[in-house]
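Protocol step 4 of 6: structure prediction from sequence.
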Amino acid sequence: MLNKLLMSAALVAASSTAGFAQGFSGAELGIEYSDVSGVDDLGGISYYGSAEFELLYGFSAAVDFSLYNFEVNDDNLSNLTGHLTYRVNNVTDVGLFFGQDYTDGTSSSLFGAELSYDFGFGDIQGYVGSAEDPFSRDITLYGAGVDYDFGNGFGFEANLDRFTGDSFSASAFEIGGYYDLPQGPRLGATIGTFDQDATTDESETYFALKASIAVGSYDRTTFGPRGVYEAVRTNVDPGS
């Protein structure tokens, strides 16, 4: 699996050209490999791409596509999310997101609102929305994250994602760091905890390796993918 990560990172870096971002304010390609400590066949690799372009009067539109290859089963899992964002001022963006999670020919919808605040050395984001889990149950989906730039290419990130439904819930909290190569990709690593509260309580520790590359006049896109599999990537059947 690690060999796939390194190979995919090379393909991502090779495919990022100025032409890819032509007409867009920002675009990004990336992959993430995750593994759960002490648990066999629980983890996986995710691929994602996003692009954003400016509209009129401070509005912008973006689209994200993600493909998930979880080790626990052979289902085809993917997500498509759209964003409509309004730049309130130079440091604050608000937006609406809407999309679909796809699982082997079936789909479930999601929608919600999101907020981003740039404090100079990084940004804070939050979102809340409504969606369906893999069992077609209605859930509330929400989360927050912070990205802090230490300088010289080094940075810190922390993310909390959670969803709740009728008598079940799941959440993931992770912290980590990254390094932006000059004129090149971002490489990062995180460690986190996945908690599930359903018929039995479960808690697992996981780690992730990440690689991404961004192009465009505004570098990375304002917001990232949303969905059930984005919230908790270590288990394809959360809340079961």
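Step 5 (inspection) to follow. The chain has two helices and twelve strands.
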